[in-house]
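Field reference: sequence -> structure
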Amino acid sequence: MTFNTAFSGYIARIKHFNPNAHKFLLYTFFLSLNTGIYGVIFNLYILKLGYREDLLGLMLSIISISTGLFAIPAAMICDNIGKKNTLLVSSLILAFSMVFLYTMATQEVLLIMSVFYGVAMSFSVVAGAPFMAENSTRENRMYLFSINSVILMIAMIAGNLIGGIMPGLISAAIGTDIMDIMPYRFTLYLSLAAVMMTLIPVLYINETERMKTVKAERFKVLSSVLKSRNVQRLVLINSLIGIGAGMIVPFFNVYFHKVLSAEADQIGIIFSAAQLTMIAALIILPYLTEKFGKVKTIALTELFSIPFLIIIALTANIYMAAFAYIMRMTLMNMANPAINSFNMEIVSDKQRATVNSLTSMGWNIFLAISTYLSGVMMANSNYTLPYIITCVVYFIAALLYYRFFVNIEKVAMNGVIC
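Structure field:
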């Protein structure tokens, strides 16, 4: 199979997506454009305000804890008001939090708005994957999840480039030094505009009329999910991944800036290159899952990412670190559509939002804890230990995923299980 064949297969599948799926892809584009800008600039913006990595770590931890703790209430609200309205609520709360995060510099406001940011993310997470599962067939589901990630990557590339380039352009335009706070703040306003644009496609989603889930039934669904051994295993693995991710992912831009002396424009280019490489990987992902199976593909790509993580931690060469970062990001994240698709396939329709909320809760709560601990380590100039911890937990998580689910996948192909 060639790349052109895989790409042609994508185009053919896209034509069969229903209108709601196309609107959700547009929502993903604008939300990810915001994330791309935010991802390059926001951490640097906090440091420009005069705060240290420990406060940054605390803020990121609060976002993750809020996302995790609100996951189950968000899933129940989602079942009650529908996924369209849940996505609308998510965008409105996210925009509200960003207005204050980007304009108020006091520590108290930054921490409080981090809570709202996390709640907004919780709504988006619990509604997204179930919405795609409902608006796809078994035949094109993997392609919808994969193309959604491709759109995400394209928007992230654009956002990373905007986030990396705009501070310099704005600085030149308004006649201030690039080290001043205003160029970074004005750049972040562009991410706020992208969030507001997400409202347009969501408003035009046509969600089918359905009966609201009664309270007793919602708790019955929650109880059945909590007792499921497969769901317990998914939560365990997501918690391990969250520990590893929290140690390093929120601080990649800080690491490149402070340890490898990279500037914002260089970080933007590196991040964009990683997203570009991931697009190619995502396009061939459905072929890999058809050939090897989702579980084996997930486990192998996660294991192969670990050596590149070690290179980032050990090298002092910006070019070697950039290459390792690109490879690590591609391998570790390319299987995300397969993970989300598989998770939705092994549970019933009624359980999807709840399962998504529980896996999100495990991931985010442990990510929050490790993010804060990593921020404290880095504030004390210990930049290596977080990478060691991440390598260990990623290795364990990949092995457990294969061990727990390689046989489950074979059964799931013949019907829903939980």
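Note: The first helix runs from residue 3 to 14.
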